[in-house]
Design brief:
The protein has about 190 residues and is mostly helical. Helix content is about 65%, strand content about 5%.
Length: about 190
C-alpha cells in the first residue's frame, strides 16, 4: 500500500467516532488477523521513526523538557518503551511484561531511568517483547471482546487507541526535537 493511501486509511480509522466502531460487528478471525497485520506494520514504521529520533538526540539533551512538570525527551521515550511492554500486548489480549508489574509507582520509576543508553535498550527490548507477544497470540483469541480498564473492547478499538497514543508521543518528540534545532532524520 502506498504511503499516501496508508495515511488515508489511518486517518479514516482515527477520525471514525468510537461509537461507530463499537456499532460494527466484532471482527471475525480473518478480519482480526488482518487488523493485527496492519497494526504491526504501523508499529514497525512508528518504532523505526522513534529509534531514529532517539538516536539523533544528543545524550545531554535527554533531560531537556519544555517546561516544569512536563516529561523530558528521555521520559517520553521511556514512556513509549513502557507502552511496548504493557499496553501494546494487553490491547491484543497478551500479557504485560513482568519487567513492569502492577503497582502505583512502577511506571514513574521506569520512566525516570531515562539516560540515552537506557532508553535505546528499553525501546529495542520493549518493542521486541511487544511484537513477539502480539504475534504469538492464537488468531482464535483475537476475536470477540476483552476487558480492559473495566470495559469490553475489540482489538480494533484497543489497537486503534494504542497507535493513536503512540503517534501522539512521536509528534510530541518531533516538537521537542524541532524546539532544540534537531530535524527528524527521515525529514531531511
Amino acid at each position: 500500500m502506498h504511503i499516501a493511501a496508508r495515511a488515508c486509511v489511518v486517518a479514516l480509522v482515527l477520525l471514525t467516532p468510537a461509537a461507530a466502531l463499537r456499532a460494527q460487528d466484532v471482527p471475525n478471525r480473518e478480519a482480526a488477523v488482518e487488523y493485527r497485520k496492519q497494526f504491526m506494520t504501523d508499529l514497525d514504521t512508528l518504532h523505526s521513526k522513534v529509534m531514529a529520533l532517539a538516536g539523533a538526540i544528543p545524550a545531554e539533551k535527554y533531560a531537556w523538557r519544555p517546561g516544569e512538570g512536563v516529561r523530558s525527551f528521555g521520559e517520553v521515550l521511556m514512556h513509549i518503551a513502557s507502552e511496548y511492554y504493557v499496553f501494546n500486548p494487553m490491547s491484543f489480549g497478551g500479557e504485560r511484561s513482568p519487567l513492569l508489574p502492577r503497582g502505583p509507582d512502577v511506571f514513574k520509576k521506569f520512566e525516570a531511568n531515562a539516560s540515552k543508553d537506557s532508553v535505546l535498550k528499553y525501546l529495542r527490548n520493549g518493542y521486541a517483547y511487544s511484537r513477539s507477544t502480539i504475534m504469538a497470540i492464537d488468531p482464535a483469541n483475537l476475536t470477540g471482546t476483552r476487558k480492559l480498564f473495566g470495559r469490553d473492547f475489540t482489538i480494533i478499538e484497543t489497537g486503534t487507541g494504542m497507535t493513536a497514543d503512540l503517534h501522539e508521543h512521536l509528534g510530541q518528540l518531533i516538537a521537542y526535537a524541532r524546539m532544540n534545532g534537531i530535524a527528524p532524520p527521515w525529514s531531511k
